[in-house]
Amino acid sequence: MFISALHHLKLNHCRFFARAFLLSITTLLTCQTVSAVTLKMAFDADPVSLDPHEQLSEGTLQFSHMVFDPLVRWKQNGQIEPRLATHWKQITPTTTRFFLRKHVHFQTGNVFTAEDVAYTIRRLKRSPDFRAMFDSISSVVVINKYTVDIRSTNTNPLLLNIMTYVFPMDKVFYQGRDEIIKFGNSFASQRVSGTGPFIVQEREPGVRMVLTRNKDYWDTKSKGNVDKIILTPIKTDSTRLAALLSGDVDFIFPVSPIDIERTKNSKGIKIITLPTGRILLLHLNEKRRSEFRDVRVRRAINLAINQQLIVEKILRGYAIPAGQLSASKFLGHVDSIKPEYNLPKALELMKQAGYEKGFRVSMMAPNNRYMNDDKVAQAIAAMLGRIHITVDLKTLPKAQYFQQYDERAADIMMLGWQSDTEDSNNLFEFIIACQDAKSGLGAYNASEYCAPSINEDIKLANREMNPEKRARIMQQVEIKLHNDAAIVPLYWQYNTWAAKNNLHIESIVNDQNYPFLGDLVIDEK
Q1: Do the strands 389-396 and 359-366 form a parallel or antiparallel pair, or are they unpaired?
Q2: At 398, is the pLDDT very low, low, confident or very high (cuts 50, 70, 90)?
């Protein structure tokens, strides 16, 4: 059961006033409350934890934008805007000074200060999921109550991008009981105190979450008028859409590609689709399977999977087939690397590697995390069967799947990754780098692939301030990954949301899928 940081009950009521008029005539006047605006959401899953540092995932970051506030955040146009940091300036090549917003309170009533920023970044540096990103930050120095210096070990071209991950936590509330336990029962996983637009009132994991408006929220300029959010996770695409069409919910994500045209033609419903940099890929675990240590086998698997067919038939065109990790908007993208499907060549490579008769592997994929993820996994299993690789496929709900993913529980595992720094190096740091528990590099590298030269390139790219030189470094990584067939890129996924026409979702959704619900305006019918 969710335990609130606030122990009080909010009551709406009307007061009746009686006034005496001449000739002893009494008139009763009733003061009516303004009607509350409630948003009923049905997403494919709910956050696995209330701890913003437990898991680096889309669900965690969506939740963080509702209950916490970032120092800075991405705008729809790809620019960064101030939030809890009002402005910043470069003090030295390795030090950036951030000036913080005043008169901001956490939900406990504690005042937000520079101490909370320093505390949060230090905690991020010890989070298994986030530490790789924050490894380049050497120290955080509190200058005064509302000023903080963030120092990097070297020049850091992405420092501002990284600050989009900093959602200051209430130091007074959490300190001393802030252990980070993945999928565990910790203080921070069940209790929350943020500065954000909403407060968690009820939570039953996997069933329902209720959030109410933070009446003391600092952003009084926001036009958002949602007073209450009821989030119901609905795993099945058809059931989720039926809930919207019947009026049971107001806003859903995702919409299955097979349902997009139907949704577009539904009266009173709007649909928004945006291309993204989220890459879907397969990891081939080289530690578990000796066959995957042979580059010919890895190339055969890449050639046997028809990305174009998956996009056309299963995703109905709402994705872009990928032959590399970096989307075209990222500096590391290499124009010449394209997805390639060649079944005869794949069979020949299997023969050359001594596996003409194939072998049997295990594979795991989620069934409610990415768009039609279970159907895509089934199609891939069938395609691998054509080169005589028999796949024992198991699909799991998001919460259970990522526990298995962390344990590297199958030979082949599916992963989707959104570079929230809008940069190729974020992809390389987390899903390609040689695993290093101390730095956090390779935290999601379920291939167990390790190329030390790539780790060196990651370090170089994290220091290089010249965009052209950075691009060449990261393109070099993409070329090596392609030549090594280190992973199997599948496609860059689109995001598709649907809502009732009276919800102005077009102004609050983005390609990273962190809807800024605090700014959502709903027209009352």
Answers
A1: parallel
A2: confident
